[in-house]
Amino acid sequence: DCEKEPSSYMWIYILLGNLLRGIGETPITPLGISYLDDFAKEENVPVYVACLHTIAMMGPMFGFLLGSLCAKLYVDVGFVDPGSITITPQDSRWVGAWWLGFLIGGATNFLAAIPFCFLPKSLKKPEKANKDKTSRGLLENTDFYNSLKKVLGNRMYFTFLCCSLLQFSSFIGFVTYKPKYMEQQYGQSTSKSNFLIGMTSLPPVGLGIFLGGLIMKKYKMGMIGATKFSFTMSILSYAVGLLHFFVGCDTSMVAGMTVSY
User: Fold this and answer.
1) Which of 38, 72, 213, 231 is 20 to 30 A from 44 (CA-CA)?
2) Which residues contact 77 (CB under 8 A, 6 or more apart)?
3) Contact of 226 with 216, CB cutoff 8 Å
């Protein structure tokens, strides 16, 4: 005799919102890097690109901190009397104001996009601009699919692409599931878990990207030097990452599983 609860279609709005956000964010990194590569001095490009990626890493960091703040607020903040709420953020039934972050982030993105409207459509290239006839001919004389085939046929680029996919897959999995793991295994609130992840995981990555750009500029690394540098740092990173397997905690006592009733 149970009545079926009415289904909600709010997920469609979230889906469309994230779709539009992705469309707006996509041009920033590829076009931004190309823009810097075309109009900046060759020796300064690594630093500028490092700054671009470092700022991109600061966004998720502030996002986690904002999520930590929003998680402390009840989901219906502003619509219910705070005194009538009988549960706390430590309660598993607590639902934070997850929607508030979308409003703040959307307003911030809108304000940050306004200065882009005043940028010139084109800039005068410096006299010593990079004139790579191979890449220019590749874009002018062939269509997109042939260009893509030639790019993916470059063994060095394809290897770097596979390496980047593995790195980002592990990092995204870590950032996505580590807060929930901390909540379940260590009894932390959603707010505190997001705060810890935002402060301990993302700032070191941003700092490393910035330092890498400075090192490349100082030693004026070419393609081969940058490849060796990236390979060495990746090996060291994986070696340090293996130390995680030696870090553990005592097994939690669960009646009927690890201890008897």
Assistant:
1) 231
2) 97, 100
3) yes
